[in-house]
Queue: 4 jobs
Job 1
Amino acid sequence: MIVVGAGAAGLMAATSAASRGRRVLLLEKNRKLGVKILISGGTRCNITHNCDNTGIIKAFGRNGRFLHSALAALPPPKVVEMIEAAGVATKVEDTGKIFPVSDRAIDVRDALVNMAVNAGATIEPESPVDQIERTDSGFAVQVMGANGRTLRCHSLLITTGGLSYPGCGTTGDGYAWAQQFGHSIVNTVPALVPLLNDAPWANDLKGITIDRMLVQLIEESRPSNSNENGDAAAPKKKRKPKSLANREGSFLFTHFGFSGPAPLDVSREVARHPDRKSLRLICDFLPDMKHEALLNRLADKKRAEGKQQASGLLSEFFPRRLSDQLLIQAGVQLMTRNADLSKANLLSLTDSVKRLPLEVNGTLGFEKAEVTSGGVNLKEVDSKTMQSKLQTNLFFAGEVLDLDGYIGGFNFQSAFSTGWLAGQHV
């Protein structure tokens, strides 16, 4: 068996197959193995998530059901057990994310490499694959570079990743090989990627983090003022905004827009949308407080602190810069005395906190995306084995497949589980 790509999926697949006595050669085009592992989680490596298989499946939306067999073969607790058996202690953080106690991604990478080598796999870095051809007995794999030669194998597993973080070597090589063997590729877009916004007031909030915020990505209708012939026509009635995604989590204002788990988790829908000018993020800065409860709290403060300026109304909840901007967006003058605020002012301020619309102008693209949405069509891959339905002894695992989940270790779990399952069936 030859595995192409020594990332999370490839390393786990090599361990799985070699532990069954298969002769395994793992080829990696980079000098370093598992480059994306090394930079993941801010170089801490979010290994997986502290949840059951159902929780992992839900994180992948409509494509999650493809993972049933893979997760049955290698669920999150088993991944943690294997990593710890390889000498890396783990911890569960409040968010459910599982990290190495050392907070060092290199420890996880080294553990995965050692697992594969100890199982009997051979790993060759700096061995970029140029061409793959079908032969009567399997596949011929042409390797370039100092280790250049043509290798032959019975089974081939492609774990080359997607297009995210191309600096790691993930340049979509696997898609072309998949198409060569008849597979279709679901259109690829960046996912788990920061969002763009060019509103100066929002960009001036750079550096402010809200630990828990609820964001809803909506599509607003933009009625046309022309008919099918291009002639002027009466504007159509605007339809109700369509909700595309909802996520709750940390939110970070940046100089270019928004980052943090909540924005990243809805970024796939932004990247896939054909009309980004119609998109808005509806932000609830206090998801644990009902609209009416906040309105009453502000009314109480108005009565109790009537001589104070409105600029202090939200000081118990938010940093001053954010508090001021929420007031400004609500049309409330910062120097206004609380006693002079009208009911309409309080309603507007409550709406500003609970339903503030923010424009979305796109994403930072694949260069800053943690994963790729899209890839090898899942309908063409057997979910029980990871084998191609179009070519015998051709397997796929990891991000090269049309699988992308939420932030929080879900995508690594998918890579580990699909890689392990493929290794069990070569």
Note: Residues 163 and 171 are 5 Å apart (CA to CA).
Job 2
Amino acid sequence: MIAETWDVVVIGAGAAGLLAAIRAAELGRRTLLLEKNKKPGVKILMSGGTRCNLTHATDNRGIVEAFGPAGKFLHSPLAALSVADTIALFENEGVATKAEDTGKVFPVSNKAADVLDALLRRLHRSGAILSLAEPVTRVAPTRGGAWTLTTPQRTIAARRVIVTSGGKSYPGSGTTGDGYGFCAQFGHTIIPPRPSLTPIRVTVPWITDLRGVTIPGVQLRVLEADGKLVASHPAVRRGSLLFAHFGLSGPVALDVSRVISGHPSPRSLRLELDLLLGDSEAELGDFLRSESLASGKKQLAVVLASRLPRRLCDALLRQAGMAPERKAAALSKAERTILVAAMKRLTLPVAGTLGFEKAEVTAGGVALDEVDSRTMRSKLVPELYIAGEVLDLDGPIGGYNFQSAFSTGWLAGTHAAESA
């Protein structure tokens, strides 16, 4: 027995789902937003260290380019809801924003809760109904192009359905890949989901001693076993790096993690680190030679510590076969060459990643060529719309993924409402 009938039903109250429901309701459609958790927007609250990096200070082209080859899918969603539109949406709800030096945009309050509260206020004003702790267990088409959705509480009829149930990252927040099953049953191809923006494990015991050491500007390259750059995007990144007891974290490590998790043999890969982007190898060699002559009485580790954190310097010297306490005097050309290579081309073997448990987003998902990017409508089932992280669309750290979710959700809500 059908309990209720709605124009639009949205599955999943994350970033994409909230925007989709708001938009559909504001366009006059009777809209229901179903969320299996007891609270909406759990990942919004967790994101950015509970600060919520809600977008990136760039234009539409900057967002598109950040996603690599898949970015072209975002042209229409961003035309519907741009970065400027997104910032205006939150500021109109009383959430002032700020762009940090990295380009990341946060609420001035540094509180992710303010971002979620703003979305919930607008959702309430839109007239959309939010139902919590109500997971969707079945989605089925009916005659006449409508839908029947089943939950533990009731059976619902809908003219249009929008799937915004997220990926598989941070499964503790409820994103356990339910949407893949819904979409697959209607013939959609699911690109195998894998963790993205997740820390990298390396098989080097001495890395443990560097736990907590941060370097603000490094270049990280992912190499095949033969030393060639991995063909996948993005194989090279520049930015901040954090050493951890298991390996590497920080923006550069997180950004390239999708390349590792998507590789058929992750343990065959190597990471190459340039720890001193401001110096060429020749300049660094000249620096070591001049310091050897001018500061010979200083410990070599102290000389290197003018460029890099001391703990890292000690570790690099040990790996180069030199005692951290040795003096800088009489540093041979061969030793200079070894040290330059250690700082400019430090190579670390890959053991894998920390997986979905620590992943900020999911790579893989519903194949993009099966969704009309102009409307977010399924090309296989006209009354079905798909948006957000459930799509095979993931970008780098920095607010790009939230912008993608907001924009695709807004566009899906627009066209689902117009066609309902």
Note: The mean pLDDT is 94.
Job 3
Amino acid sequence: MGEDQTIISQTKLFVGGLNRKLRGKELREEFSKFGEVAFARVKLDKETGKSRWFGFVEFVNPEDAAKAQKEMDGQELMGRVVKVDFARENPERMENREETKIAEDDGDDVKF
């Protein structure tokens, strides 16, 4: 296999160790005190629908993401200590997302 081609995001955070009851809405509320959140998502198991204990929060501004990472890493959230770090992005996925955004901007009916 080739070199690790992941890119560390400047706006998207990985949040691990989440309480299984926590959902994207609560994650967004908790992190929005640091700035404008573009999206917040808790990853769910496809078969059971239960939380996989982690999620992602993406900020509009890199400065807000940096502050949130620094302030929230190691903090307690709904009774669990969370690990917050900058997300690692696969360049191919990022490129596909950008192509989808461009298609949507052009008025094409593209679904995720």
Note: Residues 8-105 form a domain with the Alpha-Beta Plaits fold (CATH 3.30.70.330).
Job 4
Amino acid sequence: MENSDHIEILRALFLNWAPEKGIEILPLPQAGSYRQYYRITGQQKHAIGVYSPDKSETTAFLTFTNHFRQLGLQVPEIYASDPENDCYLISDLGNMSLLDHLELNRTGGIPSDETYEFYRLAIAELPRFQVDACRDMNFSVCYPSGEFDGRAMRWDLNYFKYYFLRLLKIPFNEAALEDDFDRLIIHLLQSGGNYFMYRDFQARNIMVHEGKPWFIDYQGGRRGPLQYDLASLLFQVKASLPYSFREEMLGWYLENLKKYISIDEKRFIDDYYGFVLIRLLQVMGAYGFRGYFERRAHFLQSIPYAVENLRWLLANVKFRIEMPELMKALQQVADTEIKLPYLPETGSLTVTVNSFSFKNGPPPDYSGNGGGFIFDCRALPNPGRYDHYKKFTGLDESVIQYLEREPVVIKFLQNVYKIVDQSILEYQRRGFSHLQVNFGCTGGQHRSVYCASRLAAYIDENYSVKVIISHNEMKNLMFK
């Protein structure tokens, strides 16, 4: 289906549900799937529109969501759906995932108290999905597999073998490696698997909304073991959680799980690290495929974090089964300096963000495109009117605090983000190479510098593009 076709279907769904026209339909960045998301905004209401080309996946999501909501779990509401055309509307839970909250609120790698509490709340809810929701769950709609059985585990292990080990040219004896895979699968199957396994229970799929964790992207769920989901969250590669924090959260999970079922804690923990291993191997396979084959820089950049997790696992965990060929290959990965492939600049996007003074005029566009944006910051409150701030710039904490106390500044930036989001996504889709965004104020020292630096950070966090930032009225040219 062409983009314009499913956008029109989503527009019609929104009109029937609201009922009002969607004034603004903005595409949202894709992650690791082929689903396409849009934020649809009307005069009074807003929603997330989803187009998913996989009917089986859509059926699983809609079925699971209705089941979870009946149990009072914090998942999106389904406003409207058109399964025949692979489109549906769900409630808008905002932009702040738990991973975003973690990255914005930690010092020296340590999560803030608030982030710590969101992890605790999310982990306390996990047994409700796994145990409570498992009762009366319609597992017949699970996709691509109804359970995390030996065959599903084999898919993940082969994913790692062919899309990570082979691509990094790590030598191994294939027959011996397959023998080790057999032993690992048999070992993991002994843990039992008669629970709902979320499959991708990670901080990127937990939204922070209205002071609570909300849960999304569970359409890959199936019958499976308890340990896998906890391993997915605590050993999420990009999160880089402190290992002491992971151990503490393991204990917290067990404390909450025991409210629902009786468990052998020692056996659970022994088995848990086997699931940490297979999850890590699956993730590395996915990064290899998405990064090396699909040339998606975000996934390539995550590989060193995965290898760091692997190093910790090899140094700190003694597995109860012998897997000599697998351990040898993993040790080679851990000992190898991973050289990521070069992604050619052709077709990649560079976003140049400038601050300037209207007294001297906007900077030229050296790319030759002659496009982009100029945002006028002179309508914002001006710290430069006060003597205290005259020696500072928009990069200094006192000026930042001054501007961030003003709601009009935050609203201004949110509107800028929306406009620039739309251009970045369309420029990437069409293979454009350069976008320029300029912020001007009276002196080019406070408001424009602050806004330019905030936009550059936002783009860098949300997109795999090159960002160059320049403050024209300051002596040093700075690159991000």
Note: Residues 3-90 form a domain with the Phosphorylase Kinase; domain 1 fold (CATH 3.30.200).
